[in-house]
Amino acid sequence: MDFDVGHRIAETRKRAGVSLDELARRARVPTAALTALEMGQPANLSTAAVARLARELDVDVSDWLGPPVQPSEPSLFFRQAGVPDFFDVDRASVVQALRYARSIATVDELLGHSYKRTEFAPVEVGSDRPYEQGYSLARRLRQALGRLVEPLESISAIIEDEFGVPVFAYPLHASHLIALTAKERTSNLAAVIVNRNFPGSRRVDLAHELAHVLFDAPLQDIDYWLDLDILEHDSRIEQRAKAFAAEFLIPRAGLVQNFGPAQDRGEKRNSLAASLDLARRVGAHFRTPPELTANHLVNHSYIAEELREEVGESVTVPPFTGPPRIEMLHRRLAEALGAGLITQMRARELLGLSARDPLPTTVNPEP
Asked: CA 268, CA 241: separation in Å to the nearest integer?
């Protein structure tokens, strides 16, 4: 038995609050051999003896023999600068999100889950008219989802269930940070975080982040796309992501099917009353907020350019709130526990809990 196994046994034993002598006695293992193993020294222990140690600590022996789940320790790379307090205050939230993403990937492998994310590769942003590229990528994605024209329900559900990327809402401290996407280059893991302290449309924020998840390649071991409410940070990558979000939420084909071609609008394009009415109906149909709705209708020539600001500020669209969702890692762990693929101890490890911590009821509803 090697040191890595011994180290994991020692960690599990300490989390369970069991002394080395007590564990050795209960598992019928020589104390000296267990001591040597935990210290990384040669130890003559059979596989059966290690299995008894695992049973006494309520873990699956494969948890010790398989690859460990290591937390990420990112060194931050800013695709956009200007958030001086992000590294110091909010780094732990990103580390936790990526650790959860790794835990989800571990459980997904056991469950045999596969996702559409493997069908997409990063696309270099065009040097000219990046918004047209954003439109094209959004249409391509809708085609892959088999949903060319209809309104979309929960965007977080699409990101998690179709692409296997967890979504988190954390109270971040950086005052101009709306949302971010974090990726690991070697593992291809990704996580999306929206700032719970920042007001706005979560549907737009998440659709925007989905563009980063699928189409932006990390340049560092761990890379970040920070979406800010500062205009000077509107890079070509951000222009593409904004256009992607608009077309993904309001597909042009859906506009034509439900509201007719833009050229049929005629003089209504220049009428404030007609433009407000159209923006209200489109926003209600596709569940999009006023500003994005107005901008997209102007960009697709349904509304005159000079009415953009007034329509965006004046139209009222009821906010869309989808049903609450259980955190993705909790859902996957509940599925794996129900299928008998992991132990409760392993579920605690993947959640970063100690042996004494109860599992959340969303993971294990049993008392």
From this structure: 30
Distance CA 175, CA 84 (A): 10
What's the one-letter identity of residue 123?
V
Kindly state the DSSP code that residue 189 receives in the 8-state scheme. -
Which amino acid is present at 155? I
State the architecture of 3-65 in CATH terms: Orthogonal Bundle (1.10)
Contacts of 264 (CB under 8 A, 6+ apart): none
The kind and range of the H/E element at 191 are strand 190-195
- What are the tokens at 275? 């433009």
What number of other Cβ atoms are within 10 A of residue 176's Cβ?
Answer: 17
**Domain regions of the chain by residue span:** 3-65, 86-249, 252-314
> What's the predicted TM-score (pTM) here?
0.77
Compute the distance between CA of residue 338 and CA of residue 140 in angstroms, rounded to an integer.
36
Task: Walk along the chain (367 residues) and give the pLDDT tens digit of each residue.
Answer: 455 678 888 888 887 788 999 999 999 999 998 888 888 887 777 778 888 888 888 777 766 766 554 544 443 333 333 444 455 667 778 888 888 999 999 999 999 999 999 999 999 987 778 999 999 999 999 999 999 999 998 999 999 999 999 999 998 877 777 888 888 888 888 999 988 887 777 899 999 999 999 999 887 766 666 666 654 445 788 889 999 999 999 999 999 999 999 999 999 999 999 999 999 999 999 999 999 999 999 999 999 999 999 999 998 877 777 778 899 999 999 999 999 999 888 898 889 887 778 899 999 876 5
Instruction: Name the token pair of 226.
Output: 């920070």
